[in-house]
Amino acid sequence: MDITLAILGMLLVLVGFTGSILPVIPGPPISWAGYLLLKWTRYVETQADSYNTSLWILLFFVILVTILDYVVPVIGTKKFGGSRRGMWGATIGVVVGLFFGPPGIILGPFLGAYIGEITSGKKEREALRAAWGSFVGFLTGVGMKLMVCGGILFFFMRYLFF
Description:
Layout: H1 2-21, H2 27-37, H3 48-79, H4 84-97, H5 101-119, H6 124-161
């Protein structure tokens, strides 16, 4: 049963990494759930106190980055003069960009925000500025989620193998 929980936990941690890039999958919470599965294995028995401490600290960061993931793109878009339509365009751009691999994931939010701003009646220069803000906000959110998932992966591997 320990091996099954460890494999399932690792799969959840990896799905969480994917979810850090994809806007439809809550990456850090899924990764944390994978880390939580180790609690019911023998891999953490000898280090239960430090495991429990890391579990709660990581949960704090998961909650924080999940909240910030909704706030940071809005701040970035608004700071650069964007609208709600630009934010929706960035989100749609991410989803469409998935079909074009890594370049699509990177360029999708920018192009989506730009198209959203242009269709809302903004001039090209204003739309580019707002698209840039949306893009920076999106990348900041992705970066924060990847860092948290990286921390979860680090602790998962630490308790699984060391």
